[in-house]
Write a structure and sequence with these properties.
452 residues; alpha+beta; BirA Bifunctional Protein, domain 2; 2 domains; 9-stranded mixed β-sheet; 6-stranded mixed β-sheet; 12 helices; binds zinc ion; Probable proline--tRNA ligase, mitochondrial; ligase; nucleotide-binding; proline-tRNA ligase activity
């Protein structure tokens, strides 16, 4: 069990003045991330725990459910294959470009379609028996934003999961694409976030079929057109330019066919705000044609591999969780201004044990209850790596409690005037217990409820 006095948790009284978003303010104040330069953050130990937990959730879906293999492609990318696909010239100033000592062009990878296609092509023609190939990585990505803002929402360096798949035929890639979408939905449900899957523009990556995943949040930067009584949803980018500028247009009837929306034409289109966290594309053969990633079928016929790519922004997902996670689906206001409520799956620590100060004799008594009663008992019943012991026995309760709320522990076990209390911070419930042995049964009542 970690002792609070031994953990470095640098916290700030006030958020930096340029931090406009709640997630930016709280994550910097709570000592999760620290800005080093515009749009570039150090991930502090607390933030790294959140990120590693999120990676675990993602790894499990990618590897166990989808059967993808984890890999690590270079971050420093040669311009050669970017020139072949045309993206070296098509991509604007958002690409971080640099030169080596021999004057060769490189960029810092914002995305890896060229790299992974080069990699697969470098092993020669692939037998259809080796397909599909499904590779993913979780690494830093780079984009030179004009105005890096909103903290982790739009940084110039960010952590992203990107996956690339290579298939022999359309049927196989469509099946896999649907499975990836289901996995994304599993991940977002596990985090208890309100999300919507929308049809999207394929943009600079190209290809012929694409969906985005958005977390619904008033602070989102994207406008989404959603049917109010069905499941139709699309990024507003897909609409005509004149429609984009007029919000009136979106009081329209949902003129969808049965196959595009479940409302059967009865719904109305509304605008909602979203934070884009995931993007799936069917790329077809755009990259494999150009970079010669070739398969050979059973009749020894050659064909370009059919590709898909699937991104999930992890640093952005962390910010979006702080922005919009609600413990109860019915809660309208997120929470107090100085408290983070984490989805349980990614809370940095689940519990802190603390005492109220007081006279020397009281302090000693409370310390004894913690060390001789609570700690040994919890050591046998809960995951001790998730528990912090606040051993600052003389520190005021107000200071310790405010810190616990800002950090976003799920549970506070408090020994004070009223004996032992168990606080469930997301719901503000407080339970009095006679003995530490009652704590696990209280926790287990809540386990299932820490979801939408
Ligand atoms: Zn509809």
């Amino acid at each position: 069990m970690l002792r609070r006095s031994s953990i470095w948790m640098p916290m700030l009284k006030e958020a930096p003045s340029q931090a406009k978003l709640r997630s930016h303010q709280l994550l910097v104040r709570g000592g999760y991330f620290s800005q080093m330069a515009s749009g570039i953050f150090s991930i502090l130990p607390l933030g790294n725990r959140v990120l590693e937990k999120l990676e675990k959730v993602v790894d499990s879906e990618m590897q166990v459910v989808l059967g993808a293999q984890k890999t690590r492609l270079p971050i420093l990318l040669s311009a050669d294959s970017w020139r072949k696909t045309g993206r070296w010239d098509q991509t604007g100033d958002e690409l971080f470009r640099l030169k080596d000592r021999r004057d060769n062009d490189f960029c810092l990878g914002p995305t890896h379609e060229e790299t992974v296609t080069d990699l697969v092509a470098s092993f020669g023609h692939l037998s259809h028996k080796q397909l599909p190939i499904k590779l993913y990585q979780i690494t830093q990505k780079y984009r030179d934003e004009i105005r890096p803002r909103f903290g982790l929402m739009r940084g110039r360096e960010f952590t992203m999961k990107d996956m690339y798949s290579f298939h022999a035929d359309e049927e196989d890639i469509m099946r896999f694409y649907d499975n990836v979408c289901t996995s994304y939905e599993n991940i977002l449900k596990k985090l208890g976030l309100d999300f919507v899957k929308v049809r999207a523009d394929t943009g600079n990556i190209g290809g012929n079929f694409s969906h985005e995943y958005h977390i619904l949040a008033d602070t989102g930067e994207d406008d989404l057109v959603c049917c109010d009584s069905g499941d139709y949803a699309a990024n507003v980018e897909l609409f005509e330019p004149e429609a984009k500028t007029s919000t009136d247009v979106f009081n329209l009837d949902c003129n969808c066919t049965e196959s595009t929306c479940s409302c059967m034409g009865k719904g109305k289109l509304r605008i909602k705000k979203g934070i884009e966290v995931g993007h799936c594309f069917i790329l077809g053969t755009k990259y494999s044609d150009t970079l010669k990633a070739i398969g050979v079928n059973a009749d020894q016929k050659r064909f370009p591999l059919i590709m898909g790519c699937y991104g999930l922004g992890l640093s952005r997902l962390i910010a979006a969780s702080v922005e919009s996670y609600r413990y109860h689906a019915s809660t309208t206001k997120v929470t107090a201004d100085d408290a983070i409520v984490w989805p349980r799956a990614i809370a940095p620590y689940e519990m802190i044990i603390m005492t109220a100060p007081g006279k020397e004799s009281e302090r000693q008594k409370r310390k004894d209850i913690v060390e001789k009663d609570i700690v040994p008992y919890l050591s046998e019943t809960v995951d001790i790596n998730e528990v912090v012991l606040d051993d600052r026995w003389k520190e005021s309760l107000g200071v310790k409690m405010a810190e616990a709320k800002l950090i976003g522990y799920i549970w506070v076990v408090l020994v004070g005037k009223k004996g032992i209390e168990v606080h469930h911070l997301p719901s503000s419930n407080i339970f009095s217990v006679q003995h530490a042995s009652e704590i696990p049964s209280i926790i287990s009542q809540f386990d299932d409820r820490i979801q939408k």
